[in-house]
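Please, structure for the following, as tokens.
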Amino acid sequence: MKDISCKLLVIGAGPGGYVCAIRAGQLGVDTVLVEANKLGGTCLNVGCIPSKALIHAAEQFEKIARIASGTSPLGISVGRPELDLTKTMLWKEAIVGRLNNGVSGLLKRAGVKIVDGWARFRDGQDD
């Protein structure tokens, strides 16, 4: 294993970790960020953001379904809507991917080194 030294080690690239690392890098602190999974943490990758994207898609489907039922006061009518779940999931993944790339770009511009892997603190003492 290769030794890496730095002034600041940030473990985890969730919303707290990546923001901390970006700011430290902007301030000129030699920073390393360690993350085993995708940048952005649970919220960006499997929690809040993907859920909100799917909720938005469901709301749009519901609006179209309501119009298709013939209850539009505007007299607009359309055929019965259908959902292509594969395309919806690809759309959601594209949103997550763009946000992952945005976090990555901000870290790189701030000069933060990113290590793919796991880290832990052994103790607070120098060896």
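The mean pLDDT is 92. Residues 16 and 47 are 15 Å apart (CA to CA).
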